[in-house]
Predict the 3D structure of the following.
Amino acid sequence: MAQQPKTGSNTGFVLHSPEVVAGGTLPRDYTGDGTSSTLPLQWSGAPAKTRSLAVIMHHIPPENGAKWYWVLYDIPASTTSLPKNVTGIGTLGSNSVTRRVGYAPPHSKGPGPKKYTYTVYALSASPRVTGQRKRRPVRLPSSVHSIRSPKWLLS
């Protein structure tokens, strides 16, 4: 498919996927209505001071707070892509749907179209997550800063 990269503000940090165009529709295979696969992602131009990367897929429903489906952190700074159904790269965090570690694919239930945001964070240090990784979202310590973060919006 054609690709429309999205960049982090004022940088050449670019995020895209070989499976879908930015602003397009998340293919069925990457939802709970399909094969529940994680979307392959590719990025380039991470800032030189990047020490670690993190990926978050989320959406904000109109009726209540954010839902996050995929949290992957401790990704080595040298990484520039994640394959479909990635394993062995980084550390999986919990999701807000099942409240378990791992990818929770979105489903088509609920009113109206959904907007899913994929974000890659370039971090100034590797996060140190202690305990309760299975029940709470990953919260980065205040000493870890996001240097840049390109976002990608899909329906």
In short: The beta strands are 6-7, 14-16, 41-44, 52-59, 67-76, 81-82, 91-92, 116-123, 146-148, 151-154.
